[in-house]
Structures are given as structure tokens and as C-alpha cells.
Amino acid sequence: MSETADRLSEIAWSLNRHEWQPTDEEIELASAFFEVLVKAPRSVPDFPRGADQGDRLYTESFAVLARRVEAVQAELLPAWRHRLDGSPMVELVELYAGAAQPLLPHAERLLTAWASTSFAEPTAREIADEARRLNVTAAQGEAHLAYLNASAWEEKLFPPSVLDDLLRVWDRLLAVAATMTAAVTGDTDF
Fold it and tell me: How far is Cα of residue 174 from the mean position of the Cα atoms in its chain?
């Protein structure tokens, strides 16, 4: 287990055992963190979506994450690091930004590749077949085919071992964010 993984566990346990009870300022920082995540510039292209609402390309997810981490590092941490020096909440924000670092080069590489890629347009027959198969409109069938084409493109760029590593990083980010959420909500029964 890495030193940062140990620190996340320590913070989570101190929160769970009520050894750390976030101050109003720390909760304000966490709220500001989540606000930055929501409002961070999403200067990424429109990406196709799958038939299910949650179907997103990794390219989109990583690109949005990169913009969010840039905002956290450029705006949030400089404003709060010295204000709450030594705070577990500042450490959580730093852990989040630090944990995201392995994903950032992939996000930039994917965006560059995306910008220079064009996909073959599906035929009217393919669109009709997909719409019928999914029981959706032709426009939705076409959008789903675009998603499938882009997803296949991503698979070529991400060997399974690389994607597995990146998804472990993503899981780590979720763990940090969950700890911050627990600190804000007080729901520490985990």
C-alpha cells in the first residue's frame, strides 16, 4: 500500500471514529471542491453517447477529469492550502489531484487523437437496423452507432492492461471523493 493510500485510510478512519470532526471552514473547502468539479470548464468536444444515459467514452471522462483537476490545482488549492494548513480536508483535495495525475497524459493524448479522427458515417440501412434493434428513433439509433464506432476506436488505443490501470486510478478518485462527501454530510458509517 502506498503512503498516500495509507493516508486516505487514516483520514477516513479518523472521520469514522469521530477523531476528526471537520470545521465549518473545512466543510466550506469541500463544498468549494465539489463546486469546482461541477463548474470546471468542459472545453471538450461533443462526444457520442450510448443508448443508456451512463454510456460515456473514456475519452470524454478523462478529458473532463483533466479540466477539473486543472481547476482544482489552479484555483482551489492555492486559495486554501495556507488558510487550512495541516487540515485533513486540504490533504484530501491534494490526494484527489495527485491521484488523477496518471490519467492526465492519457486525456491529452486521447483529445489529440480524437481531433484528428474521422469516423465512417453509418448507412441508412445500418441506422434503421440499429433503431429497430434498440426500439428507438432513427436519430437515437444513429447516435448509438456513432458511440459504438467511437468505443471501438478507444479499444484500439487502450490495451486492456492500460485501461485496467487507469480504472484503478479512477476508483481511487472515487474513494477520495467519497471520503470528502462523508466529511461534508456527516454520514460516516462506512
Answer: 8
The structural domains of the chain, with segments of one domain joined by +, span 3-184
Grid coordinates belonging to 29: 473547502
Q: For 42-107, give the DSSP string.
A: ---------SSTT---HHHHHHHHHHHHHHIIIIIHHHHTTTTTT-HHHHHHHHHHHHHGGGHHHH
How far is 19 from 82, CA to CA, in rounded Å? 22
User: Tell me, what DSSP letter sits at residue 2?
Assistant: -
Cell numbers that stand for 43 in this block: 472545453
What is the per-residue pLDDT across 114-163, written as a single tens digit (0 to 9) for each? 889 999 999 999 999 999 999 999 999 999 999 999 999 998 888 888 88
Phi then psi dihedrals of residue 78, to 5 deg: -60, -35
Residue 113: its H or E element: helix 104-115
Angle between helices 3-16 and 160-185 (to 10 degrees): 30
pTM of structure: 0.84
